[in-house]
Specification:
The chain is mainly β and about 100 residues long. The chain contains no helices and 6 strands. The protein is globular.
Length: about 100
Amino acid sequence: MKAGKLVHVITVQRFTSAPNEYGTPIEAWSDLATLRAEVVEQSTEEFIRAQGAAEESAIVFRTRFLAGIGNGDRVAFGSGTYNIREVVEIGRRKGLEIRCREVL
């Protein structure tokens, strides 16, 4: 993986829940890692659903390997956040391809 292609900065976030002083769980997204990435593909698809037409934005990132990233995490990139749909390992721990859908 060539460093020259990794021109974007993404933040991988994980959902956490911790109790406050009253015992009520507070749920939030915390930063897991900040990575350099390449945007491989970005598209907007329009779907017809029961509620009517809806737009969904898909994006694919390529980055260096980081163990532990899964479908329960999300990616913050630019002004948007994206749910991770699939994580594909490139080579033998050489890199990751992270396929995401925009959070609406």
